[in-house]
Amino acid sequence: MQAKVEQxxxxxxxxxxxxxxxxxxxxxxLAPAKMKRRKLKARDEVAGDAGYKAGRSAQLHHAVxxxxxxxxxxxx
Length: 76
Description:
- The chain has one domain (2-60).
- The protein contains three helices and no strands.
- It is an all-alpha fold.
- The relative contact order is 0.23.
- The chain has helices at residues 2-9, 15-26, 42-56.
- The radius of gyration is 18 Å and the shape is flat.
């Protein structure tokens, strides 16, 4: 599924730098958040398996006349 999303989104090599520049500009004082560990429940594993199976058959389509634009890099 990740490959399908990357192909659909048109991931570019410089997108990480663009996101970091945006975050630095808009949220300069943002601190990392601490994550809480949650107990895994049986339904979580079943849901994960179902999501994996659904993702294997997923199809993504661009709108008619779609022109990909790296919007995060504009005006940075």
